[in-house]
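Re: beginner question about structure tokens

> Can someone show what the tokenized structure looks like for a real chain? I only ever see the sequence side.

Sure, here's an example I had lying around. Input first:
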Amino acid sequence: MNGAIIHPIPPVFDKNSRILILGSFPSVKSREVGFFYGHPQNRFWKVVSALFEEETPRTVEEKKDLLIRNGVALWDVLHSCEIRGSSDASIKNASPNDLSVILCAAEIKAIFTNGAAAYKYYVRYALPSTGRPAVPLPSTSPANAAWSTERLLTEWRKIII
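And the corresponding structure tokens:
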């Protein structure tokens, strides 16, 4: 590990956002493309668009529009950390994002985490300041091969509030 990496992607939200989905930290591919869930095998965009009965977005603008149109805020728990590749298990020396940026600007009704690592970091770093519980969801990462897209859709339906 070569020192801390600062989160390079700003949050997506507006005053009408009602749910907040938090990942842990952007993958190498997401950092390269400059937007969340940039790895083509990550099922996040496929799952979220299916839940809102929309076409899977392709461009960053289409992805942002999908989120905003459906009242979804998107960010990550961590602001910076040392990480090897995209491995959540390798994260060290983490510091959290200031979620009040979103929570003070929008009436967020529920907070969800994408994967166990995001949930773990949320509980450790964010819950003490937000005082708001988060609902853990199974990771949409291709590394979570035990979960089919259909199974993810069933579990992720919780975001429809």
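Each token stands for a local structural state, so reading them left to right follows the chain. The mean pLDDT is 96.
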